[in-house]
Amino acid sequence: MSDTVLVYKGESIAAYGFGASHPFGTDRHDVFHAELDKAGFGDKIEYGHPRPALVDELALFHTADYIDKVSRMSAAGKGWLDDGDTPVVPGIYDAASAVVGAVLCAVDEVMHDNHKRAFVPIAGLHHAARSSAAGFCVFNDCGIAVEYLRQKYGVQRVAYIDIDAHHGDGVFYGFEDDPDLIFADIHEDGRFLYPGTGSAEETGTGRARGTKLNIPLAPGADDSDFRRAWQRVEAYLESMQPQFVIMHCGADSLEGDPITHLCWSEEAHAEAAASLCHVADKFCDGRIIGTGGGGYNRRNLARAWTRVVQSFVETQ
Ligand SMILES: [Zn+2]
């Protein structure tokens, strides 16, 4: 196995975005990669180049009707995929499929023991539901990755850990009655921020009741609040013993994001990533992938994601 960290790069994933005036612009990929280059990890990282996802792979999580709708609207090139958060731009189907493809490539590389850790910057589209777009998210690459790990590799107990400021509702509700999806999400309290969900009382439904961890934080919460919450995540993961870790590294939880109100520094992302690598080493043969997620202050996303990659490198 290579001891390099695999980082995905390429025009096809960079193209996922909604135009220059939108917070989720297509410049985010290059801003991150410029910062990563500056960090000088040299031969400790290797670049991966994504392939598009197949329709059958999208259908592991999404309904056929919804996939058709995205395809049709992408060709038409205008309108909205939801009630006004996620606009259609020409080619959005291809860009969204490339994001999913990159994440599935990352899963394959890690499962084939070519790398222990992989990071996909433009990914983590955690608001998309099984049958609808939401909150800038077209296809839910994380949800698809969970189903893909189960179907292709027989890995049932995947841990999804989300530190984006927004609740990962697309993943949570996609698996809320599934006791094998290990879910922990620290986010800004839904009373103050989109999508409004993720209260501490939401622990799963049916057979999965009591198996999931939502930790809402008040607006203005800082690194010390993050660390207190993270201790609960660590104890939870220790008790759940996952087989694979997916980290959602949304950088909109850092101070200065234009659309959220948490006040962490990039230390939170560095510490969370290092901690999850230890969990992965203990329970998952080291297997972890990171997805960039949100983050609309460019400096913040560049630094937070670079610190995640640094933690992946340092814990190899
Ligand atoms: Zn977010």
Question: What are the salient characteristics of this protein?
Answer:
316 residues, alpha/beta, eight-stranded parallel β-sheet, 10 helices, 8 strands, 40% helix
Q: Could you state the order of secondary-structure elements as H and E?
A: EHHEHHHEHEHEEHEHEH
Total DSSP helices: 10
Spatial strand sequence of the major β-sheet: 2-1-3-8-7-4-5-6
Major sheet summary line: 8 strands, parallel
Mean pLDDT, rounded to whole units? 97
> How large a portion of the residues is in β-strands, by DSSP E?
5-15%
Instruction: Specify the helix fraction band.
Output: 25-40%
Instruction: Give the C-alpha Rg.
Output: 17 Å
Provide an overview of this structure.
There is one protein chain. The protein is α/β, with parallel strands linked by helices and 316 residues long. The protein has ten helices and eight strands. The protein has helices at 11-14, 28-39, 55-58, 64-76, 92-111, 141-153, 169-174, 223-240, 266-283, 298-314, and strands at 5-8, 45-48, 117-120, 158-162, 182-188, 213-217, 244-248, 288-291. The chain has an eight-stranded parallel beta sheet with strand order 2-1-3-8-7-4-5-6, sandwiched between helices. Strand 4, helix 7 and strand 5 form a beta-alpha-beta unit. Helix 2 (28-39) packs across helix 10 (298-314) and helix 5 (92-111) crosses helix 6. The longest helix is centred in the first third of the chain and has 20 residues, at 92-111. It is globular. The relative contact order is 0.15. The site of zinc ion has 6 residues, from loops.
